Amino acid sequence: MTREFTGWHMLGLMVGGFGIIIAVNLTLAWNAIATFPGLETRNSYVISQSFQADRAAQNALRWNASATVEDNVLTVAILDQTGAPVQTEVVRVVLGRATHTGQDSAPELTWNGAALTAPVDLEAGYWNLRLELIAPDGTPFRRRFPITVQ
Predict the structure, then answer these.
(1) 10 Å Cβ neighbour count for 138?
(2) What residues in the chain have per-residue pLDDT under 50?
(3) Which 3 state secondary structure label does DSSP give 71?
(4) What is the Cβ-side half-sphere exposure of residue 146, based on CA atoms within 13 angstroms?
(5) Beta-ladder partners of 93
(6) With contact defined as beta carbons under 8 Å apart, do 149 and 102 qualify?
(7) pLDDT computed for residue 38 by the predictor
(8) Membrane-spanning residues where (predicted)?
(9) pLDDT at site 69
(10) So what's the pLDDT on residue 36?
(11) For residue 142, what are the β-bridge partners?
(12) Measured between alpha carbons, how far is 16 from 23 in angstroms, rounded to an integer?
């Protein structure tokens, strides 16, 4: 015996289908907002006014900068165009996850004669190092380094 497919059945299918879609979208939106670490800057318009000049000044330094973590030691190597290490003034260091600020830390970088180093204790995963330095000539140098810890 077959039952007749009525308008109420269609309404139920439509409400159920769209209900699932809306529930999934709300769940994803909630997780996106709950895990967002926050703003990079308070006023992006003001920062954007000097972005090109700041970038040109940093590029004029012609530095090759890299950051690695090996054996629980964070190493930030900054080399000039000749390959010689550059000793800089450290303004700000933030090491944390890309998705939340709960594990953010500010390692104390020290100069070892060839690079800036700091002991760190990181779990496996994807990390970001946000670094603000001042070059010997006074040029501000800002970089974000993605770091993957195995």
Answers:
(1) 8
(2) none
(3) coil
(4) 5
(5) 131
(6) no
(7) 67
(8) 12-33
(9) 92
(10) 74
(11) 132
(12) 10
What is the per-residue pLDDT for 135? 92
**141/89 Cα distance (integer angstroms):** 10
Tokens coding 39: 């703003």
Tokens of 81: 């165009």
CATH, range 44-149: 2.60.40.1220
Q: What is the distance between the alpha carbons of residues 11 and 15, in angstroms, rounded to a whole number?
A: 6
Q: Side chain identity at 35, as an amino acid letter?
A: T
Q: What does DSSP assign to residue 25?
A: H
CA angle, corner 9, sides to 6 and 13, nearest 5? 145
Give the other-Cβ count within 10 Å of 88's Cβ.
Answer: 22
8 A C-beta contact, residue 77 and residue 66: yes
CA–CA separation, 108 and 91 (whole Å): 11
